[in-house]
Amino acid sequence: MDKKELFYSIARPNIRDMEEYDPGPVLPELVRISSNENNLGVSGKAIEAIKNAVSECNRYGDSRCDRLREKLGRKHGMTADQFVIGNGLDGVFTMLGRAFIEPGDEVVCGELTFSVYAEMAEIMGGKAVKVPMTDNMELDTDGFIDAVTGKTRMVVFCNPNNPTGTGTGINDIRKMLDAIPEKVLFVLDEAYIEFADENTADGLTLLNEYPNLMVCRTFSKVYGLAGLRVGWIAGDAELMKYLYKVREPYVVSVPAAAGAEAALEDIVFLTESIEMAKNEKKRFYDFFSTNDIKFIPSQTNFILLPLGDASVRLRDGLLEEGIIVRLLRFRGKGIIRITIGLPEENTLLMEKFMGVYEAAE
Ligand SMILES: Cc1ncc(COP(=O)(O)O)c(C=O)c1O
After folding, report:
1. Which single residue of 28, 269, 301, 326 could bond 34 by disulfide (Cβ 3.0 to 4.6 Å)?
2. How far apart are CA 351 and CA 14, in angstroms?
């Protein structure tokens, strides 16, 4: 047997044919508006805290990140034991899979949503059930309710949704939670909630009412710490215990915990980041409307352009101009996701966009 066949036969059957995550090109010299990061940089307070923590790296850190959980508890009017900190939200989803998904279990998620949910299900031997988007390319809350069967272990609802940027209001979230059996876990991924307006639900306000609800958020987006890898999940303290059973013992590094704690308190950086996204989104809306470019208004720090066939050439053309945007697919057609960058980066994109788009059409 050649090595390739041998290793294929050794790997767990459900992961053998899975595709690896592809982040796309990330050359530092490019204008990077492809991964929904915060292009404002890192909060000065977080940088200082990370530097100070480096000298403590001979020690294992606090396994459960007590100080960070207490700060999160105070910020959100909850208790520390309602939080679990992970190695980014990606790491939180690894824990969710390990704790709750058995072979054959179904995980309901959107047709066009963050890809990690389906991967989590498949890695654990479960099955992702993808709910078709509405005609407006929104997550279909009624569709989510209909998709739940006796085999469903978990529903993962991304709000606001990546990559569409659309938000779902509290009444629709409630409707799903009321309709879904209590033994089905309902995970709300709110990675972009800080950018959203009041029309998008804040899932934390529902936690006391629904014991099967969990809400997760990250330091990677508005807090500007994507490279540090810190995310969290909140839910009933009894339920969180099962995540503690499966998490890696020292899942968050000492500098990462310190940086996240400091970032949480840097309200100036946070406000500036939110304001920038809000103001720059307006500029983009005006630009796309004026130029007749189809876009979906967004509750996040990115905008989706459902441009179909022109998408690949648009992505390639912008890359030639030194700008990297994200090319994704929806029902076989290309779509482009643009992260809101710094004002000057957005200006550059607007300057280059129509030339490249017209050549791509
Ligand atoms: C909806 C959503 N959830 C989770 C994540 C992962 O975040 P983290 O960097 O905390 O792993 C992302 C990152 O792009 C995301 O878009």
Report:
1. 326
2. 46
Angle CA 19–87–215, to nearest 5: 95
Question: 216: phi > 0 → left, psi -120 to 50 → alpha, else beta; which?
Answer: beta
- Whether this prediction's pTM lies above 0.90 is answered by yes
19-47 in b/e form (b: 16+ CB < 10 A) is: eeeeeeeeeeeebbbbbbbbbeebbebbe
Strands (DSSP E) found in the chain: 31-32, 83-86, 106-110, 127-131, 152-158, 185-189, 213-218, 231-234, 302-305, 323-324, 326-330, 333-339
Q: List 158's β-bridge partners, or say none.
A: 189
Q: What domains appear along the chain, each with residue ranges and CATH number?
A: 3-41+268-360 (3.90.1150.10), 44-266 (3.40.640.10)
Distance in Å, CA 194 to ligand 1 centroid: 13
Residue 25 has pLDDT above 90, yes or no: no
CB of 88 closer than 6 A to ligand 1?
yes
Q: Lowest-confidence range among 27-31, 109-113, 181-185, 310-314?
A: 27-31
Instruction: Please report the atom of ligand 1 found closest to the CA of residue 226.
Output: 9
Distances (CA, A) of 288 to 23, 123, 167, 303, 308: 26, 39, 20, 11, 16
Per-residue pLDDT of 199-229, as tens digits, reads 999 999 999 999 999 999 999 999 999 999 9
Spacing, Cα 289 to ligand 1 middle (Å):
29
Name the residue with tokens 């978990």: 154
